[in-house]
Design a protein that fits this description.
Length: 159
C-alpha cells in the first residue's frame, strides 16, 4: 500500500513538474516566434531601402552594366579606375581641376564619389570650410581611356 501511495505521489509530482516546464518552453517558443517575425519584417524593410538606395548606382543598373560589358570592360575595374583618376587629381596644384570653382580658403578636393550609371558620377567636395556637390559626365575614348567632364556643381553657402 505504501509503495502504491508513493508511486501515485511520484507520478503526480512528475506530471506537475513536466507541465510547468512544457508551459515555460511553449511561452519561450511563442516569444521567439514573435521576435523572428519582427526581425523578418525589419529585414524586408531594409531590403526595400537598400534596393531604393542602389537603384542609382553602377552596380544596381543592369543597362549600365551591359553597356560596360559590351565595351569589353568590367564594372568593378571601371569603378576603381575612375576613383583612382579622380582622387589622383586632388593632389594637383591649385586643387582638383575637375571642380570648376576656385576656393578662397585653400584647394577644393573631392571627398566622396558615387557612380550613378555608365555616364554620370556624383561627387562631394570641400576645402575644409566650404563644401559642395558636383555632377561629372564620363566617356570612354576609342582606346578605352576615360574622359571626365564636369556638368554642374553647387557650393553650399555658409552665410
Amino acid at each position: 500500500m505504501y509503495l502504491f501511495f508513493f508511486a501515485v505521489l511520484f507520478i503526480v509530482f512528475q506530471y506537475a513538474n513536466e507541465k510547468t516546464i512544457w508551459e515555460a518552453q511553449d511561452t519561450t517558443i511563442e516569444n521567439l516566434s514573435l521576435k523572428l517575425e519582427k526581425a523578418q519584417d525589419s529585414i524586408s524593410g531594409l531590403s526595400d531601402t537598400l534596393a531604393d538606395a542602389t537603384y542609382f548606382s553602377l552596380q544596381g543598373n543592369e543597362n549600365a552594366l551591359e553597356y560596360i560589358e559590351r565595351l569589353g570592360l568590367e564594372a568593378t575595374d571601371i569603378q576603381a579606375i575612375i576613383y583612382d583618376q579622380i582622387y589622383d587629381k586632388n593632389g594637383a596644384a591649385g586643387g582638383n581641376p575637375i571642380i570648376p570653382m576656385a576656393s578662397v580658403n585653400g584647394n577644393f578636393k573631392i571627398n566622396k564619389i558615387k557612380l550613378l550609371n555608365s555616364r554620370w558620377i556624383q561627387a562631394d567636395f570641400s576645402d575644409g570650410d566650404n563644401w559642395g556637390e558636383l555632377i561629372i559626365e564620363y566617356f570612354f575614348n576609342q582606346d578605352n581611356s576615360i574622359e571626365l567632364v564636369p556638368l554642374s556643381s553647387f557650393l553650399y553657402s555658409l552665410k
